[in-house]
Design goal:
With about 190 residues, this protein is α+β, with helices and mostly antiparallel strands. About 20% of the residues lie in helices and about 20% in strands. The chain folds into two domains: about 35 residues; about 140 residues, Rieske [2Fe-2S] iron-sulphur domain (Rieske Iron-sulfur Protein, 3-layer Sandwich), CATH 2.102.10.
Length: about 190
């Protein structure tokens, strides 16, 4: 037996082992790193949604789904718009200072256009879905009523004082692509 060491063979085996180890590491790392990325289904769940409001009549409500939540689009009539300035002290957050809405919706109407309301249809108390109550009566000026715990919201989604819901209904980012189509999920410029 020779006591000589074959350095070239040792370098070749070491390099081969490093290459095979690196390839194996990459092969294991690719699925692991890919798992950090959201799936196509998850990406589409947060994608903006178009809603056609061309045939929406005054007083009518349509519902579209965005991020797994119902988004209400209401074409308010003149009676509904007239009630918004009459409520004053009966609202918990009349100026929408504590509510979630884009800056362009921080107004009396909580919308880009006074006649069109776009907001999430989930009560801010415990997540129930309020019902649309367009009827104006002596004790309720119309709007939305949550049957789970009795929270009431006006035609702008502002919460009444003295009910369980802590804040106004959220207004999602949205803009008008044209007079008949709204894109919900992006602020846009229109």
């Amino acid at each position: 037996m020779s006591s000589e060491v074959d350095n070239s063979r040792r370098r070749f085996l070491t390099a081969g082992t490093v290459v095979v180890g690196a390839v194996g590491t990459v092969a294991v790392a690719i699925p692991f790193v890919k798992s950090w990325s959201p799936s196509a289904r998850a990406r589409s769940a947060g994608a903006p949604v178009e809603a056609n409001i061309g045939k929406l009549l005054p007083g009518q409500l349509i519902i579209v789904k965005w991020r797994g939540k119902p988004v209400w689009i209401v074409r308010r009539d003149e009676k509904a718009l007239a009630t918004l300035s009459d409520l004053g002290d009966s609202l918990r957050d009349e100026a929408s200072d504590e509510s979630i809405q884009p800056d362009y919706a921080k107004n009396e109407y909580r919308s880009r256009k006074p006649e069109i309301l776009v907001m999430e249809g989930i009560c801010t108390h415990l997540g129930c879905s309020p019902t649309y109550r367009p009827e104006i009566t002596a004790d309720f000026k119309g709007g939305f009523f949550c049957p789970c715990h009795g929270s009431k919201f006006d035609f702008a989604g502002r919460v009444y004082a003295g009910v369980p819901a802590p804040t106004n209904l959220p207004v999602p980012p949205h803009y008008y692509i044209n007079d008949d189509v709204i894109l919900i999920g992006e602020d846009g410029v229109a």
